[in-house]
């Protein structure tokens, strides 16, 4: 911008020169520096174990274990806003055959008899705080709002195999078919897979998907649980939690689908090493029971998980919900990196609108 210069300064010329100087300064500041990049910090919920997070129609939705008879959800325009968003009770489990001790909720938008509906899967006891009675159940939404309202749909029980507890439900969609994932007790704790004829009905018995065999899967107990699906570019992975949740060595492993019948254990290859685990340097212990979600513009993949802030943290409501972006290796496998320290400023998911 060129500005007129006058030997005789009037009030007008003084004002004009000030405007010109301000304009010049603005043009010297790069656009990228003119507005600081939006960031957020973890945790998203200080008391949020077993989290599930989904971005849908302009909002993030978060649910987590409550350990009581209520199912709650948070809703926010921004990821960081979930930390202060109110918890809304979307369903109460005090119904016939209901009870409480609600764990590991997940909600999936699936085809139902009346079109797309949210199917809300969770674990709860038939008798409150009787952990041996924990089973998998499902709700169905009346419409397409993740917040509901919801109606109870079904107990996800297999009459031929209802002889032990089942936990940590999730859904696999593969080759046009639907499967329920979970974990159960058979002396150790393996992950299972069960075929479904619709989002609430089993069409076959459970099959073992993975069993804890490596030393890193058996710290504090032989455990595989929390199986979660991650799909990209035609590849399907199942990420699971290993070792006992009360230990700082709770961590994530991964299965890779190699084709064939998903019900056959031979169709899945387990990595010999964990892919996400404790970081003493960052003060993160027992990271696990994760979920995955897309950025608002669909270009990024993110992980949501719980962790403790001390090695003595247990398997209780003090586990906090955290999220961070994952990347992809050249061979098409996911790279989770290292769990970041609480309070670290992270760039918000791509495409997130300003708050």
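^ structure tokens above, recovered residues below v
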């Amino acid at each position: 911008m060129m500005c007129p210069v006058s030997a005789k300064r009037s009030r007008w010329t003084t004002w004009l020169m000030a405007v010109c100087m301000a304009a010049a300064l603005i043009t010297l500041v790069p656009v990228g520096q003119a507005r600081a990049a939006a960031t957020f910090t973890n945790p998203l919920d200080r008391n949020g174990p077993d989290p599930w997070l989904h971005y849908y129609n302009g909002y993030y939705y978060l649910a987590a274990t409550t350990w009581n008879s209520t199912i709650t959800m948070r809703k926010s325009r921004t990821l960081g806003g979930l930390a202060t968003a109110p918890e809304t009770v979307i369903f109460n489990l005090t119904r016939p055959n209901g009870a409480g001790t609600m764990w590991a909720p997940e909600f999936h938008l699936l085809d139902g008899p009346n079109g797309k509906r949210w199917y809300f899967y969770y674990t709860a006891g038939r008798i409150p705080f009787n952990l041996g009675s924990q089973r998998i159940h499902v709700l169905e939404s009346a419409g397409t709002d993740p917040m509901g309202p919801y109606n109870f749909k079904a107990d996800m029980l297999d009459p031929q195999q209802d002889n032990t507890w089942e936990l940590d439900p999730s859904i696999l969609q593969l080759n046009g078919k639907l499967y329920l994932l979970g974990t159960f007790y058979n002396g150790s704790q393996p992950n299972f897979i069960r075929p479904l004829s619709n989002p609430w009905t089993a069409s076959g018995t459970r099959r073992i998907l993975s069993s804890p065999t490596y030393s890193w899967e058996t710290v504090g107990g032989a455990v595989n649980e929390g199986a979660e699906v991650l799909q990209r570019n035609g590849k399907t992975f199942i990420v699971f939690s290993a070792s006992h949740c009360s230990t700082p060595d709770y961590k994530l492993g991964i299965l890779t689908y190699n084709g064939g019948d998903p019900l056959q254990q031979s169709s899945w290859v387990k990595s010999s090493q964990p892919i996400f685990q404790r970081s003493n340097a960052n003060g993160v212990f027992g990271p696990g029971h994760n979920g995955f979600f897309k950025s608002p513009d669909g270009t990024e993949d993110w992980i949501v998980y719980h962790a403790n802030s001390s090695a003595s943290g247990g398997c209780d409501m003090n586990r906090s919900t955290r999220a961070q972006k994952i990347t992809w290796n050249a061979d098409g496998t996911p790279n989770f990196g290292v769990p970041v320290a609480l309070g670290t400023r992270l760039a918000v998911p791509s495409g997130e609108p300003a708050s």
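The chain is about 5% helix and 45% strand.
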